[in-house]
Backbone:
């Protein structure tokens, strides 16, 4: 495995980026600054595609939907992204995906089998139009949010989560098959119960730390009173998972899957005791969701002394001026590298007043560097 410890406690930034055949970017070679990088251009010019390329480099996935194929430029057989991550030790990352489903990942010239290794080499967080869906959407993204945080601050979490996921798949396979003996099903139920309890313990410890950071972040950014974040583990809090699965066994067999467990965990934001999604405006939900992501980055920095790369899409369209200034201040204070996009150059620059920035203009997938600003 790629060694996270080699890169912990080091200032990190993506210094060089090469992109080939990703959406409307045919070929790009870019040198990024270690601080704030601003990308300006009209809608459809390639701003978000650049952020997507960086995210792809750090995950092997896209943040726009589940399918990889739309990521690949028309008439191209595949897309490639290469990057140089500068820390005390330089790290070279390359990711290639083909229309045939093939995937090739290399870190420092060595073939890597698991995409999770990319997240260790280049942790990235996205803030943009879809961030509010963290609160408004299905529970899946919220579980991935929790897992991302744990993956970066608890080194023992990933193998436990992989084991629990395999155990869940095995139990569900037995439930669907209908031919498994009660003893075989009981064996996997017992294994899954132990693994799920372990995952829950990890998540609870992480959530307590996240909640502490989030309360301070909310006070700084939102102005809302009585905001709290509540964690649900995925089964009745008064009973063990073994008891719950025993009581639900007939239903599980009928449905062909395990109804309760770590795979059903969720988090909910409440304001004055009520669900935020029912009492807050969309604008308030946006800043709450952004505060949650910023809190995760801040906790990662506090635990690992390594800030993620922040990809900030269409900042000026998403937040009003006061919230933009507050968010930009938090981002700069995080110490992480920032790549932010916008349509209006003057408005985008104004959000980072007094901060030296590296600026780029993009038109039809072609990027050109502009004169830097610190005004």
Residues:
């Amino acid at each position: 495995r790629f060694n996270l410890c080699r890169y912990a406690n080091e200032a990190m930034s993506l210094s060089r980026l090469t992109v080939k055949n990703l959406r409307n970017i045919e070929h790009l070679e870019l040198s990024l600054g270690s601080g704030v990088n601003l990308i300006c251009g009209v809608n459809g010019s390639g701003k978000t595609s650049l952020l997507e390329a960086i995210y792809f480099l750090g995950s092997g996935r896209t943040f726009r939907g589940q399918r990889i194929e739309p990521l690949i430029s028309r008439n191209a057989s595949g897309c490639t992204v290469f990057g140089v991550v500068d820390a005390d030790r330089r790290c070279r990352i390359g990711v290639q995906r083909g229309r045939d489903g093939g995937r090739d990942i290399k870190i420092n010239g060595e073939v890597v089998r698991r995409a999770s290794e990319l997240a260790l080499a280049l942790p990235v967080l996205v803030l943009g139009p879809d961030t509010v869906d963290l609160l408004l959407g299905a529970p899946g993204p919220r579980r991935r949010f929790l897992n991302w945080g744990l993956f970066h601050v608890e080194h023992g979490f990933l193998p436990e989560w992989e084991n629990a996921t395999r155990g869940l798949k095995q139990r569900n396979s037995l439930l669907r098959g209908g031919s498994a003996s009660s003893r075989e099903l009981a064996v996997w139920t017992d294994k899954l119960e132990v693994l799920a309890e372990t995952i829950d313990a990890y998540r609870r410890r992480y959530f307590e730390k996240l909640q502490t950071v989030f309360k301070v972040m909310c006070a700084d950014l939102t102005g809302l009173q009585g905001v709290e974040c509540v964690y649900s583990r995925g089964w009745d809090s008064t009973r063990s998972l073994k008891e719950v699965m025993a009581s639900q066994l007939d239903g599980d067999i009928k449905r062909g899957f395990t109804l309760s467990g770590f795979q059903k965990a969720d988090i909910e934001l409440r304001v004055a005791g009520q669900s935020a999604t029912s009492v807050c405006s969309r604008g308030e939900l946006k800043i709450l969701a952004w505060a949650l992501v910023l809190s995760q980055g801040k906790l990662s920095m506090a635990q690992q002394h390594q800030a993620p790369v922040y990809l900030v899409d269409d900042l000026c369209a998403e937040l009003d001026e006061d919230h933009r200034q507050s968010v930009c201040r938090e981002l700069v204070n995080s110490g992480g590298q920032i790549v932010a996009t916008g349509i209006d150059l003057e408005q985008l620059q104004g959000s980072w007043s007094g901060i030296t920035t590296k600026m780029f203009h993009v038109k039809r997938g072609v990027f050109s560097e502009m004169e830097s600003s610190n005004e």
